[in-house]
Write a structure and sequence with these properties.
Helix content: under 10%
Structural class: mainly beta
Low-confidence stretches: 1-28
Order of helices and strands: EEEEEEEEEEEEEEEHEEEEHHHEEEEEEE
Oligomer: single chain
Distance between the termini: 12 Å
């Protein structure tokens, strides 16, 4: 088998991804497995500050293979070359030009410049590929996420504070917006009341009841592919809608299957990996009391993430086992289901780009950026 070449034998398709290889699509094929091989890791526990990250990072990559790591704690974007060598830093904490009070993942506009959203300051900050601050644009609406499409529209989550039935609530609207930030297509909206102030003596049973309503619950997911197509689905059903950048409905991807059951190992994994983030400010004695009253639903949501591939295929992340592996459903460019398969790769910030897969791996509280070659059989 030669890298970058397809080997076909009686309907079985073997593809090895290397460099900027693109997966071809055939009308009749059997896909049975996906494997990942780590080829690059960025991050250290101690040492050079340029390779040390805060508790929350996000990653993206440009078409040349350069890697951009957004460090939310430091409000910075660091650029690394395709070999993982540190090149430069963009941004810092602050309110001035090129500074951030809040920061999103680094993205790329139609001119090839880098931009990041500052949710708190309602601005989009632009840098060139050499890290030079270019300008910033104030926006009159608050967005939790915002990205340009090839058509000049925006994909994102609009957030407004409104009073509903006398109660102030944040209304979040997911969709595609025009250049005046008016919704062209609304995917989903929800009203979220502000969290109550912390009580000096919290009720563990009440806290457990509230927490039980949020764990393993469906969520809206959207993502834009490299060609500008937009994939959206709400994970209470196995239905994913595909839109053009202009907002036209192109097709629907669905699968007739049952959601995965929540097993004892899933509960153990929740307490081991996610538990502390929900109640991190409470003393251990209260945490332990809350834990005794937690109850889990019977089923998981139908999926956890959508990851478009560069040939038009879609990888749907059905389940993730901690930071160790992902269970995928793979669909071809016409929305036909190909296979369900497991890959040994983290789920956090997972995406495909440049014939590679990228993800963030956490190890004992330290964050590392990983790049993988992958093989589909």
């Amino acid at each position: 088998m030669v890298r970058g070449i397809i080997s076909i034998a009686i309907g079985i398709l073997t593809i090895v991804i290397s460099g900027n290889g693109i997966i071809p699509t055939l009308s009749s094929q059997v896909v049975t497995s996906i494997s990942f091989k780590e080829e690059l890791s960025i991050g250290v526990r101690e040492g050079d500050e340029n390779y040390m990250f805060g508790n929350t990072i996000m990653v993206n990559a440009d078409s040349s293979g350069n890697i951009y790591v957004t460090d939310w704690d430091r409000k910075q974007i660091r650029k690394y070359d395709p070999r993982g060598k540190y090149l430069l830093t963009m941004g810092q904490k602050g309110q001035g030009p090129g500074e951030f009070a809040n920061i999103s993942v680094a993205r790329f506009d139609r001119a090839g410049n880098i931009y990041a959203l500052d949710f708190a300051s309602r601005k989009i900050v632009f840098f060139d590929l050499n890290g030079k601050f270019l300008n910033q644009r104030q926006i009159n609406e608050q967005f939790a996420d915002l990205q340009w499409t090839p058509a000049g529209t925006y994909l994102g989550i609009q957030s407004k504070l409104l009073e509903i039935a006398g109660i102030p609530q944040f209304v979040r609207k997911y969709g595609i917006f025009d250049d005046q930030f008016k919704a062209i297509v609304e995917f989903y909206s929800a009203a979220i009341p502000p969290p109550p102030p912390p009580l000096p003596n919290p009720n563990p049973r009440a806290l457990a009841e509230d927490l039980s309503k949020s764990i393993f619950q469906p969520d809206p997911f959207y993502v834009m592919g490299s060609d500008g197509q937009i994939f959206y689905g709400y994970s209470d059903k196995y239905v994913i809608h595909v839109y053009s950048p202009e907002g036209a409905k192109l097709r629907t991807i669905s699968r007739d299957c049952e959601p995965l059951k929540i097993e004892k190992k899933d509960e153990d994994d929740f307490f081991e990996n996610e538990w502390s983030t929900y109640l991190r400010y409470l003393p251990e004695t209260i945490k332990n009391q809350v834990k005794q009253h937690i109850h889990f639903p019977k089923n998981k949501p139908f999926f956890q993430r959508l990851a478009p591939m560069e040939n038009g295929w879609l990888a749907v992340v059905v389940d993730a086992e901690g930071g160790k592996s992902i269970l995928f459903d793979i669909f071809d460019k016409d929305g036909r289901f190909l296979a369900r398969m497991r890959g040994l790769v983290p789920n956090k910030n997972f995406f495909f780009r440049n014939g590679k897969a990228y993800a963030v791996k956490e190890d004992e509280g330290y964050q590392f950026v990983k790049r993988y070659s992958y093989e589909i059989r």
